[in-house]
Amino acid sequence: MIKQSISTFSKILDALPEIVYVGNPILRTKTKRVSIRKGIQIGKQLGKSLLRYRSIAGYGRGLAAPQIGVAQSVFVTYLDNIVHTYINPVIVDRSKKYNYFKELCLSAGIFSADVKRPEWIVMKWTDENAVVHQERFDGFLARLYQHEEAHLRGVVHLDQAEPGTIEFTSTNPLLEKLRTKKT
Ligand SMILES: [Zn+2]
Which residues are in the CB-under-5-Å shell of ion ligand 1? Predict the structure, then answer.
């Protein structure tokens, strides 16, 4: 499994030279709010990178602007076979109950980390059609959005890892499930 992960990662290094990795200070920099026009443009760039990543890795649901070296408040997701853009997203409410999930991140190569996050959130953002949304999300979506929003505050999943849970990816990421308890 480790050998396979490294082989995939090696292909990604060649195919996605725009991706920056932990250690690059931009990933620990708080992003700036962006104009809708600029946000849409960054979203398109991010979408292309995420689709290319998915075509190689076979998974990957989100990508945030700092991960391509851009310190602006934009991230994209790939859901329901479409790339969605989130401009200036803000989490305005969150549950007091938490869950756990072993997270991967393009910017951490083959390292995963078990991260505790609120079960649900309410997020406000502007989409690629300049429409403002505010919605509550549960389950996997709450998890995904919190991972991406943290990137915009200069926080990566490794910084939020439960102590002792950073590891070489040893399991199939597509089989990971939300848990109520630590690993
Ligand atoms: Zn990430």
Answer: 105
Alpha-carbon dihedral angle through residues 135, 140, 143, 148, given to the nearest 10 degrees: -80
Backbone angles phi, psi at 56, to 5 degrees: -95, -50
**Token representation of residue 41:** 């443009």
The span from the CA of 39 to the CA of 86, in Å, is: 8
DSSP 71-108: -BSEEEEEETTEEEEEEEEEEEEE-S-EEEEEE--GGG
Task: Flag residues of the chain having pLDDT under 50.
Answer: none
Quote the pTM value.
0.96
CA 129 – ligand 1 centroid, Å: 24
Choosing from 103, 128, 148, 149, which is the catalytic residue? 148
Q: What CA–CA distances, in Å, run from 117 to 23, 150, 161?
A: 23, 11, 10
Q: What is the rounded distance in angstroms from the CA atom of residue 23 to the CA atom of residue 97?
A: 32
